[in-house]
Design a protein that fits this description.
heterodimer; A: about 120 residues; mainly beta; 4-stranded antiparallel sheet; about 0% helix; globular; B: about 110 residues
């Protein structure tokens, strides 16, 4: 149980295009999902908290107009990197919190999406 | 240890030895701590967690110790195996708003046969 998937697992795009990454909770419902970015040999940095039915909460320094987040249902959140540039190349990881779990703090992580912008 | 630039600190151990990975966390209000294992190109994998009202918790081959006085967390792996080679991150839960996790810098564990 508690499986989170991401699609695609990797994507290569040209500079200036937009890329959408999906995060799904497969066997539980999640009112809250999180998006992280990880550069090579570095830690995970929280980008934003995605809330079903409301606007995402972005961390300081993360441009909300560049990283569009939509939490359309209790099992799906999407991250769209708009007008991607090479510096956006990174490993993007989502996590989800089971809304019915007794431990309300536990997050389940997806396998990540490798974005390469040429 | 702390990450310096782009270089993760590395802990090298012999197969069968015990490993101790350390982490300093930042927020004295953090109420929950987790250790994750991350293999190359994959998402973090949960190892063990501990609440702030505890100072020790044991799992299978792993033990987490929490010292709130000095804001220090450690992960002990008994009888380390080659499959334990990975990057290990500690994370602290900030109990504000949506309860977000803040990750530590990470330590690479290299297990040699």
């Amino acid at each position: 149980g508690a499986v989170v998937s991401q699609h695609p697992s990797w994507v290569i795009c040209k500079s200036g295009t937009s890329v959408k990454i999906e995060c799904r909770s497969l066997d539980f419902q999640a009112t809250t999902m999180f998006w992280y970015r990880q550069f090579p040999k570095q830690s995970l940095m929280l980008m934003a908290t995605s809330n079903e039915g409301s606007k995402a909460t972005y961390e300081q320094g993360v441009e909300k107009d560049k990283f569009l987040i939509n939490h359309a249902s209790l099992t799906l959140s999407t991250l769209t990197v708009t007008s991607a540039h090479p510096e956006d190349s990174s490993f993007y990881i989502c996590s989800a919190r089971d809304m019915l779990a007794g431990n309300r703090n536990e997050q389940f992580f997806g396998p990540g999406t490798r974005l390469t912008v040429l | 240890g702390e990450s310096v630039g782009l270089h993760l600190p590395t802990l090298s151990v012999q197969e069968g030895d015990n490993s101790i990975i350390n982490c300093a966390y930042s927020n004295s209000a953090s109420d929950y701590f987790i250790w994750y294992k991350q293999e190359s190109g994959k998402g973090p994998q949960f190892i063990i967690d501990i609440r702030s009202n505890m100072d020790k918790r044991q799992g299978q081959r792993v033990t987490v110790l929490l010292n709130k006085t000095v804001k220090h967390l450690s992960l002990q792996i008994a009888a380390t195996q080659p499959g334990d080679s990975a990057v290990y991150f500690c994370a602290e839960n900030i109990p504000r708003g949506y309860n977000k996790l803040i990750f530590g810098a990470g330590t690479r564990l290299a297990v040699h046969p």
